[in-house]
Amino acid sequence: MDLHASYALLRVTPPDLPTLSCCAPQPAALRAWLGELPKANLGETARRLYGALQELARLRTPPANRLQLLDLVQPEVRYVCTQLQQHLRSQVVILDARRQQIAALCQALHQQLARAAKLTASEALQLPDGDSNQQLSARALLLTLQGLYQLLCQSSWLYTAPSQGLWLELHQLYRAATSRQLERLPLQHASQGAARTIEQYYLASLLLGSARCNQLRQQAILLLGQNLPSWSRLARLQDSRLPGSLFAFAPTTDSPPRFTSLLQEEEPAQLLGLDPQSLVDALHEYLLLGREQRVHARLPVLHGVTDDLLQHLCTAWSAPAERAFNRIPGSGSLSACVGIRALHYHLAGRRSFADCLQLPEHEVSVDFQRRLREQDPWSRAFDADRHGEALHKPRERIDYRQGETPPAEREEYPLHQLPVVNHSPGGYCLAWDASPPEQLQTGDLIGLQHPGERGWNIALIRWIRQPHGSGLQLGIELLAPRAQPCGLRLLQRSDQHAHYLRGLLLGAIPTLGRPALLIAPHLPFQQGQKVQLNLDGREQTILLTHRHALSGNFNQFEYRPLATATAHERKPVTAWRLVEDPGPEGFDSLWESL
């Protein structure tokens, strides 16, 4: 089958190089050259590998020899790209010039490897039929698909659209494999553990393209890309007209899978269907298992994959929900603050977290020093101030409260003006043309303020994308028209309690049947726990009664008040402090979540 590309992504040319400049074109010589790469100098190693891959795609050599050379180079490319990606993680979504170069280098390495593998596959497919030539063709096709899969993972990870021609290349390679019945041939590679098939990587690409990665955080996308090649065996390709074909695509076009229900204008006979139901069932089974039982689950899950990610995938690979509202093109801009710290700060009238929590001085009647002395084993030493005379000496009182917000804090929680692309009663699509803050991630809280208004709408960043030729776009889901900032801390069995964390109280909406809700960080707060709530210094004990998942970082809880603390039990509080070891019970909420 002809593997000629209509796009430049993997366009191959007739090989014209008689030899390699780095070493002799033999596996032993290349292995020795790879062993001398300066791994401590990542830039130099990447430069040498890139040059070698360019030459391998032009080398005149039998396809079997080229494939052996590529098999040796592939682990080194994987190592270098993994190290390079460390410079891209947990950074701003829009990359600066240097990080753009790093991302482009990762892409170029995978692209050159895939291009050389595709040349090998096209040559091997022209050889006479035979078991050895079948194996050679299948291995070359698999190596090409793996390179394209890494390109797709990177574009998903950076919230950008895949390179032009990538989907068509994937479809053509799979069709070439099916024409020789190679798609399910198990192929073992010494550096990759379990055997893989061409169909597994093709299905992994299709599943990744339909997983709504723009709604996930970068770490979740990275873990998803690592898991999909082993999970994809549970998905199935079939005729798009058969029951269960949730997704469909035209294999002769440069297009990813889409919901079959959205392709009414396409000719069904020309579409291929994707049925992920068995995989979704396995994900549901895994979620229902206890922590100890999951090691025996039929679905292999790498360490670090969270239940929130699995629940997201179950939703993404299930029947689409109809939009409740239509989008309307927008104009103008909104003021925005990103993250719960900034949102809490502006909701509190630009007061610091500590100022929001302090109790009035006349309500304070607790001797902290006495309690600390009781816990201190050195308090009975002969030179210790056992009776606290120093505490009762006349002293000048100092007012530590700030008359104005310090300039540094105002700069820490800036406001951003974001143009409105479109909107609906349920949310917005906002453009971010300037450099965004580092904490900008899907699943984060964001506050929105309309021009001329003082109140803040509470919202969530549901997805992020970077269209070609333009800046960032954010999908915003509105949660509530207003909220009250508060402090939350977990009540523990011992006398030592945790420090306060920021939270938001959302008022009840009786007309919609929505009770009052509390937005709290994902950890350490869990359903059924007792929590101390602080509203402008007024403390109250509440019970978290029912959890509503919000995102990977935050949960919404229904709650009910418990007995209010009496005046002599109340204590002045600090936003963050280091405490003594609280004992094993202090981490009860962590054991099941780690």
Number of helices: 15
Strand content: 15-25%
Tell me the helix content.
25-40%
> How far is the N terminus from the C terminus?
50 Å
Q: Rg to the nearest angstrom?
A: 29 Å
Described by strand count, sense and barrel closure, the largest sheet is: 6 strands, antiparallel, barrel
Coarse shape? elongated
| Low-confidence sequence ranges | 359-374, 386-397, 565-594
Number of strands: 17
Average predicted local confidence, pLDDT: 82
Strand order of the largest sheet: 6-7-8-11-10-9
| Helix-and-strand structural type | alpha+beta
Structure characterization notes:
It is a single chain. The longest helix has 28 residues, at 97-124. Helix 1 (27-35) runs parallel beside helix 3. Helices cover 33% and strands 17% of the residues. The strands form three sheets. It has a six-stranded antiparallel beta barrel with strand order 6-7-8-11-10-9. It has a six-stranded antiparallel β-barrel with strand order 12-13-14-17-16-15. Mean pLDDT is 82; it is low at 359-374, 386-397 and 565-594. The chain is an alpha+beta fold. Among the domains are: 1-210, no CATH class; 485-591.
Summarize it.
With 594 residues, the chain is an alpha+beta fold. The chain is 33% helix and 17% strand.
Helices, strands, pairings?
Layout: H1 27-35, H2 42-56, H3 63-85, H4 97-124, H5 131-157, H6 166-179, H7 198-209, H8 218-231, E1 236-239, E2 247-249, E3 258-259, E4 272-275, H9 277-288, H10 307-316, E5 328-329, E6 333-338, H11 340-347, H12 353-357, H13 368-375, H14 407-412, E7 416-424, E8 427-432, E9 445-449, E10 457-465, E11 472-480, E12 484-490, E13 501-506, E14 517-521, E15 530-535, E16 538-549, E17 554-561, H15 588-591
Antiparallel strand pairs: 1-4, 2-3, 2-4, 5-7, 6-7, 6-9, 7-8, 8-11, 9-10, 10-11, 12-13, 12-15, 13-14, 14-17, 15-16, 16-17
Helix pairs in contact: 1-3, 2-3, 2-4, 3-4, 3-5, 4-5, 5-6, 5-7, 5-8, 6-7, 7-8, 9-10
